[in-house]
Write a structure and sequence with these properties.
With 534 residues, this protein is α/β, with parallel strands linked by helices. 38% of the residues lie in helices and 16% in strands. It is built from 23 helices and 18 strands. Helix 8 runs parallel beside helix 18 and helix 8 crosses helix 21.
Length: 534
């Protein structure tokens, strides 16, 4: 009779249950066969299982062993099935005392000496195990904090195969082992509440940004006001300025003023990073908002997502955070145009022969570029013609520019004038402004699960919350006629004006709000003053 053990697998950011069935066929030559559409990592598990069994003092079956991963019509990948397969095999050969395993799921990769190595995607798998009614999940010890982020299910962290067997037979109390580890961690300064690289390890405090702060930025007060406006409503931002004026420096500090992530947002971000293999072993929930800054030679698959198994790309790794593209005009046009759908839908769907995966991509898009090929327009150092400037800016398609709410010029700064001066406001002060505006928005959209900030407002919501009086309508109409704004751009401006009013705590959009947001369209003004002879 075959023995069945539960394990989990991942597809996209979600998990699904896999039943591992083990059986032996007497009278046939000693071998191991793994079926159920396994990938190469699973096929190699037979060698790891045999070495681990012999290293830990157990007997490898003398007959032919068959291990089936059900459902058999779904492709499985990864080495985390090792632990479930070896437990099923040991039970099948009566080397472990009989016990009901229906309440357990097993996740872990085997080392040749029987140690249990950490795996990717544990958070997604444990979350799905809870949904499937599993009461306890046996996970690698180094994945314990990630797994313990999921409430309502028992987590059993193990370090080796012998520990797993002793636990299943009732000869090892894992709670005492964990308590001893926590006590030792406190003595050596490695307590669970410590933080590293913005990774949450069991404390409710928000990780500090000691390395970057807006106090370091000097001479860019007007731009910082626009950045705060964008952060308060989750609006996309483009900064245009000459080399060395502080565009990248400012972009790197934007996460420091964004609101703290909710538990739901932390879970979503941690899932994606765990599946991508970017979550360090021993880490818990990520608490800092992601900041992704791919180089301009990034491939389409790396940016959007792809590969044989449709892995998440940079747009998904930046979910609930910031995606920063420096030197925007140097990215290939096809790569930039692929951002249209994720920027609009906040989700990206990747189709491959092996299946179709959908990943969240709700990021704040921030970009920086030079105003012309030489980089110094409109200063006297610039020798570019209007045609060359228009051609250079034309590398970025109109549909992409329309999806960027704030297009702000970055002023030239003189080092000697600013040397010794202090920055205007700290990140902590700016974050307070942003969080107050976000609180107003969350209260406004409390009945909608899909909308949490002004940048995500639907057309119906714009009509309801972004009403203008006659004077504001005329101002916006004149600007639209002058620069040829499309309906999408006007909607962007209305959302932005609503955020401007929220920053001041105003109930309705005012004249100053409309003027403020029109002042955030510097690229339209600059381009309208150029003439190109073709």
């Amino acid at each position: 009779m075959a023995i069945t053990v539960k394990s989990m697998a991942t597809m996209g950011v979600d998990g699904f249950m896999v039943e591992i069935e083990a059986s032996t066929i007497r009278g046939q030559q000693q071998s191991m066969s793994i079926i159920g559409l396994p990938d190469q990592a699973i096929k190699e598990a037979g060698e790891r299982i045999q070495a681990a069994i012999e290293s830990c003092g157990y007997d490898f079956p003398k007959d032919k062993s068959i291990i089936s991963l059900a459902p058999g019509d779904k492709k499985k990948r990864g080495s985390h099935f090792d632990l479930g397969m070896i437990i099923a095999l040991l039970y099948q050969t009566d080397q472990i005392s009989p016990k009901d395993l229906s309440d357990y799921a097993f996740i872990g990769e085997l080392a040749l000496d029987g140690r249990i190595r950490p795996c990717n995607g544990v958070l997604s798998m444990v979350t799905e195990a809870r949904k499937c009614g599993v009461k306890a999940v046996v996970v690698p010890y180094d994945n314990r904090q990630e797994a313990e982020s999921v409430s309502g299910i028992r987590i059993c962290p193990v370090k080796s195969l012998p520990d797993t067997v002793r636990f299943l037979e009732g000869r090892l109390d894992l709670s005492k082992q964990n308590q001893e580890e926590k006590t030792e961690g406190c003595r050596t300064g490695r307590a669970g509440s410590s933080m590293s690289d913005g990774i949450y390890k069991g404390d409710d405090a928000d990780p500090p940004y000691d390395d970057v702060d807006f106090l370091d930025v000097k001479g860019q007060d007007e731009l910082i006001e626009a950045i705060v406006l964008g952060a308060a409503g989750g609006h996309n931002i483009l900064m245009i300025g000459e080399p060395g004026c502080g565009k990248t420096m400012i972009a790197q500090r934007i996460p420091t003023i964004l609101p703290r992530m909710t538990e739901k947002e932390s879970l979503e971000v941690t899932k994606i990073h765990s599946i991508s293999g970017l979550l360090e072993a021993g880490s818990g929930l990520l608490k800092r908002r992601p900041f992704r800054a791919p180089h301009h030679n990034v491939s389409l698959n790396a940016l959007i997502g792809g590969g044989s198994y449709a892995q998440p790309g940079e747009v998904s790794l930046a979910h609930n955070g910031v995606l920063f593209l420096d030197e925007l005009a140097e990215f290939s046009r096809s790569t930039l145009d692929a951002l249209r759908q994720p920027m609009e839908d906040k989700r990206v769907t990747i189709s491959r022969v092996n299946g179709t995966n959908s990943y969240p991509a709700n990021f704040m898009f921030v970009a920086a570029m030079n105003p012309c090929p030489c980089g110094y327009y409109p200063s006297k150092k610039c020798r570019c013609t209007d045609y060359e400037i228009i051609h250079y800016r034309g590398k970025i398609s109109g549909p992409i520019l329309e999806r960027i709410d704030i297009q702000k010029s970055v002023a030239h700064v003189d080092y000697f004038d600013l040397n010794g001066k202090e920055g205007s406001r700290s990140s902590a002060e700016l974050r307070d402004l942003v969080e107050k505006a976000r609180n107003i928005q969350q209260e406004r959209f409390r009945e909608s699960k899909e909308v949490s900030c002004n940048a995500q407002m639907t057309t119906t919501m714009i009509q309801k919350y972004c009403k203008l009086d006659e004077e504001c309508t005329q101002i916006l109409k004149k600007a639209s006629e002058k620069y040829g704004y499309s309906a999408r751009v006007i909607h962007k401006l209305l959302r932005l004006a609503r955020t401007s009013a929220d920053l001041d705590g105003a109930e309705n959009i005012r004249r100053e709000d409309v003027i403020r947001v029109l002042g955030c369209r510097d690229l339209d003004v600059s381009s309208s003053q150029m003439y190109a002879i073709t």
